[in-house]
Amino acid sequence: MSESSSSGWMGRFERFTQLSGEPLFTFGSNDVTLIRAVIFLFLIVFIAWGAKRLEVLLQRAADRRPGVNRSSFFAVSRLLRYGLWIVGALMALHVVGIDLSAIALLTGAIGIGIGLGMQGLFNNIVSGFFLLGEKALRIGDIVSLDSGISGTVRNIGLRHTLVTNNDGGSVMVPNAELVLKPVTHWTLDHASRRLHINFKVGRGIARERIGALVLEAIKAVPETLTGPRFAPEVWLTEMDHYGFGFDLVVWVNRDGIERAGHMRAQYLAAIADVLVENDIPPALPEQVLHVSSAADVVRMPMP
Question: What is the pLDDT of residue 1?
Answer without folding.
Answer: 46
